[in-house]
Amino acid sequence: MRNLSFLLQKFGFVLLFLLLEGIAFFLIIKRNNFQKVAFLNSTNELTGQVYSYYGGFKEYFYLRKENEILAQENVRLHALVEQSLRNFSAPSKGIDSAYQQVFTYTPCKVINNSVSKTQNYFTIDAGSAQGIHADMGVISPSGIAGIVKGVSPNFAVCQSVLNVNYPVSVQTKKSKDEGTLSWDGRTPVYSKVVGVPNHVDIQPGDTIETSGNSSIYPEGIPVGYVLRYTINPDDGSYIILIRLSTSFTSLRQVYVIDYLFKREQKQLEDSLAVDVGAISHD
What burial class does residue 46 get, using C-beta atoms within 10 Å of its C-beta: 0-12 exposed, 13-18 middle, 19+ buried? Predict the structure, then answer.
């Protein structure tokens, strides 16, 4: 109480002055339209800036949640695209075909990644507890990324497309002629496609995609874009230099693909002693 009394004695006139100034300012704004409009405009501008900063601050802390929502939405959309469905019904005139989902997608994050070796791998934050198992394909939002090689309950190590020992069956989007993606270990940005016949019309900018002739990826997943090509002197086929569609140096969000009929297909091939070397499983 003594401190309050001391403050009032010392700063009483200043506080009284500020109070009277505030009252005068209030009366001026209230009784004069010009000053009122100017004040409101200034206040709205200041309030808008405050809300803008607050919104940005709040949005930053909600980014993780928003990314999770977007990842789940992408999973739903992936499941609806044509490559994830297959028609198992006999065609019947006038009756809609029945389609069944054959590929499912699990969103994951890359928590460790290498790009500078000849045999590169990356680790994702999901494992057997989340339904991940070996030999499942992995894609990024922009194209193929790799294949699961080993799992623990909550993590999985994946062989990257940037691996000289990981050929992938691919095709040209335009003509569907097939070849093999074969990374040469030089750069994480470019790769080569070999084996495409030289009668095929190839142009810079053409899209290379997965062929679908495997139990790893559905058909039509982007692989890269043609930059230039030469002729292989050994067999006359194309050697195509492509720019990979996936940015492996910034690989973060990925989706693990499960081919739901993989076991059935493999059991049938094994029971008939089919040469699986002639049937690409990537």
Answer: exposed
Taken in order of first residue, the domains within the chain and their CATH numbers are: 2-65 (no CATH), 101-163+252-264 (2.40.10.340), 168-249 (2.40.10.350)
Cross-strand bridge partners of residue 173? none
* pTM strictly above 0.70: no
- CA 266, CA 260: separation in Å to the nearest integer? 12
> For residues 116 and 187, what is the distance between their CA atoms, to the nearest angstrom?
8
pLDDT, one tens digit per residue, over 90-128 is 444 443 445 567 888 999 999 999 999 999 999 999 999
Which residue is listed with tokens 């699961």? 148
Residue 195 and residue 215 in contact, taking contact as beta carbons nearer than 8 Å: no
pLDDT digits (tens, 9 = 90+) for 196-228: 999 999 999 999 999 988 789 989 999 999 999
